[in-house]
Amino acid sequence: KRKRDGEDIEKLQQSIEALDPKAEIKEFSDLPLSHITAKGLDASRFTTLTDIQSKSLPFALKGRDILGAAKTGSGKTLAFLVPVLENLYRQKWTELDGLGALIISPTRELAIQIFEVLRKIGRYHTFSAGLVIGGRSLQEEKERLGKMDILVCTPGRMLQHMDQTVDFEVNNLQMLVLDEADRIMDMGFQSSVDAIVEHLPKQRQTMLFSATQTKKVSDLARLSLRDPEYVSVHEAA
Ligand code: ADP
Ligand code: MG
Description:
The N and C termini lie far apart (51 Å). The protein has 10 helices and 7 strands. The chain has one domain (9-232): P-loop containing nucleotide triphosphate hydrolases (Rossmann fold). It is an alpha/beta fold. Helix 3 (51-61) runs parallel beside helix 4, helix 4 (76-90) crosses helix 5 (108-121) and helix 7 packs parallel to helix 9. 42% of the residues are buried. The structure holds adenosine-5'-diphosphate (ADP) and magnesium ion. Magnesium ion (MG) binds at residues 76-77, 179. Magnesium ion binds at residues 76-77, 179.
């Protein structure tokens, strides 16, 4: 595997292991992150963690499953994108390893937003990332799928590919993210998500984020989470 940026990944790994997940870290610079993610966050002007990020990032960076709830606008996107970048980076992931992370979003618009944040904070990484949301031909999407490390998708379109694209390798997948899991359920995507998850390896990290803690979300969680860390942020009174 290729060496990256002269970064001592073993040392980074040790710092992650030593990290106290309840330390309530306030700044990105106090988290054990790769130089290139730190640089991407800095260039995007992210310095201070939001509450949900502070509560969930240490657990997520340690590879734990997460069930996170915090209202819209609280910063959930970075709570899963930073661990996606870091956990694949520490594994020296390349597209030769197949798809490393899959992020499922309820709508095309939200998927595009996530993808844009990923491009911003991940700008110094060498990962290939793609959107699978329809709107271009299935064939065209198909050809690019096999070369992706990270995909942001909508459930229906993703399932279409999993059923039809032959050399789409998901057996190595390390991380699954369901963003706006409550909306995914409300929009009736449960069976699509179930079918997607059936294609994925059971040994993986799963993170679910939503604006509310609903019964429906825990139905989804029952399918895919292992000893999850429950993280929620309530509005101050
Ligand atoms: P949510 O998914 O919880 O609705 P987002 O991830 O979309 O929230 O973030 C909401 C807004 O807050 C975005 O404009 C984002 O750029 C900004 N934001 C997120 N995290 C931080 C941070 N650590 N520092 C400053 N702004 C942030
Ligand atoms: Mg969001």
